Amino acid sequence: TKKITIAIDGFSSTGKSTVAKQLAKELGYVYVDTGAMYRAVSLYAMNNSMITENSFDREALIEKLPSVNLKFIFDENLGFAAIYLNGENVEEQIRKMDVSNHVSKVASVSEVREKLVSLQKIMGEEKGIVMDGRDIGTVVFPNAELKLFMTASPEERAGRRFKELEGKGEKVSYDEVFKNVVDRDHMDTTREDSPLVMAEDAIEIDNSFLTVEEQFDIILSLAKEKI
Ligand code: C5P
């Protein structure tokens, strides 16, 4: 069997990472969560006062980008790679609501995208990779053998996200989560650099009415057709 590249794109909270992790495990591939990379850069900007409640100093972030060091290190307990920002495991911090509220602004900065996309391309050089994000099938791996585009209704997505955050003990309301999901979709689809758009050769999967298992079965057989 040959190794392929699997690109999974789609709107916020469509379950991209769930299926990407399952696939990587089943196929013995590397899984890369590119959203974690944009989130980690956002956390860096927040920790260094480049982002406050209502201001964003893009220039300061651009200037400091060379000192933002990102690494993925496999975590036995998690079963996937955790992200490290300048040597610190930030896997938990980057999932919090305040990071979600700022990440799409940071992801609209071309210099940030350039840096992260070039790291992503290097990670995929040897194929055997499942990468999820917003621009994987369009920008990072336009030649990926399998491209998936995940969708689900905003209500469904916000509901899943809300449960997940609530389960982690974070104090958020459904309305706040719903607003974040819709706002990010809007910013991600309308930004100038690498907007979220379905690649022409991607397969769209609406999982509003699919269970995690059903979705996995469908996607695994799509992958096997290519391998
Ligand atoms: O995937 P996740 O929801 O964690 O991504 C967080 C944010 O990072 C997205 O809303 C988007 O603004 C940005 N992102 C991106 N390109 C990617 C992955 C994520 O712009 N490839």
Automatic annotation (TrEMBL):
GO terms for biological process: nucleobase-containing small molecule interconversion; pyrimidine nucleotide metabolic process. It is found in: Cytoplasm. ATP binds at residues 10-18. GO terms for molecular function: ATP binding; CMP kinase activity; dCMP kinase activity. It is an enzyme of class 2 (transferase). It comes from the Bacteria. Its EC number is 2.7.4.25. Keywords: ATP-binding, Cytoplasm, Kinase, Nucleotide-binding, Transferase. Residues 6-224 form the Cytidylate kinase domain. It catalyses: dCMP + ATP = dCDP + ADP; CMP + ATP = CDP + ADP. InterPro entries: Cytidylate_kin (IPR003136), Cytidylate_kinase_dom (IPR011994), P-loop_NTPase (IPR027417). This is Cytidylate kinase. It comes from Gillisia limnaea (strain DSM 15749 / LMG 21470 / R-8282).
